[in-house]
Specification:
Order of helices and strands: HHHHHEEHEHEEHEHEHEE
Structural class: alpha/beta
CATH topology of the largest domain: Rossmann fold
Largest sheet: 7 strands, mixed
Length: 264
């Protein structure tokens, strides 16, 4: 819900331009003159302490929040249409914005688990009215996200036979690639080199869980030799791709420096 920006008039809200030009002090001084009742209502909220339960919850720093999300939320509380989806939900919202903006004809998802995120991607394509999801995983025994747009490819993502099948299904169509498979640096780098061919200019290759390289190993989220090093090596090797940090506008992300945009 968006809070309304009140002007000095008690009858209509301020325009965004007016609101941004006035300082906080000027706005409230004028409000006191024009609408003292509203001013004192606002003053009461400044003096009133926040509820203790939410004060404790919201006093966590972003680092602690990310660790808690990974430990207590990610694996059993995030779902899409009843299917477990191991995603940071803010990143999933960014994905739908990218899908709407770039309108991929195929989405290649490497690493599918139970298939909640795979079904999510298929449903986004349903809304566009086009496209297929190529779901690549070394093991689909727990996969439940079946949908007419989803095509399973079972095997090591970097194996020649897996790539050949993906290429056959892709059929030269415009792609978005999302990597959530083996997170080791060597494997991610191999997949970046192998799957970059499916992304056209303006499209994205998203590498997930680069956050693990920014935390301490053993702290509940951190690891060693994870995907971030692979991303940074890849963009040095392949100037066609650039890190699009603007896609991190929600601040909380599991993919820092992981949104790679093809620019050439």
């Amino acid at each position: 819900m968006k809070a309304e920006n009140f002007s000095l008039s008690s009858t209509k809200p301020a325009t965004p331009a007016t609101y941004e030009k006035e300082s906080w002090v000027a706005r409230n001084r004028r409000l006191l003159v024009q609408n003292p009742r509203l001013f004192f209502q606002k003053l009461a909220t400044w003096l009133r302490p926040m509820r203790a339960d939410y004060r404790r919850r919201w006093s966590r720093g972003l680092r602690r929040w990310l660790i808690r999300y990974h430990r207590d939320v990610l694996f059993d509380k995030v779902s899409w249409m009843g299917l477990t989806a191991r995603k940071m939900v803010l990143d999933a919202w960014v994905y739908q914005q990218i899908i709407h903006a770039t309108r991929p004809e195929i989405i290649i998802e490497i690493g599918n688990a139970q298939g909640g995120s795979t079904r999510f991607l298929a449903n986004m394509l349903d809304l566009l009215g086009q496209g297929d999801v190529i779901a690549v995983d070394i093991d689909h025994s727990i996969f439940q996200g079946h949908h007419p747009r989803i095509h399973l490819v079972t095997g090591d993502s970097s194996a020649p036979e897996t790539l050949a099948r993906v290429e056959e299904l892709a059929g030269g169509r415009r792609g978005l690639v999302i990597h959530d498979g083996d997170h080791s640096r060597a494997h991610v780098l191999a997949d970046l080199r192998a799957y970059a061919r499916f992304v056209r200019v303006g499209g994205y290759f998203i590498v997930e869980d680069t956050v693990i390289d920014l935390f301490r190993a053993g702290d509940g989220l951190g690891s060693v030799n994870g995907p971030l090093g692979a991303v940074e090596q890849f963009v040095r090797e392949d100037p066609r791709f650039q890190i699009d940090s603007d896609r991190e506008y929600f601040v909380l992300t599991f993919n820092p420096r992981g949104y790679l945009k093809r620019v050439a």
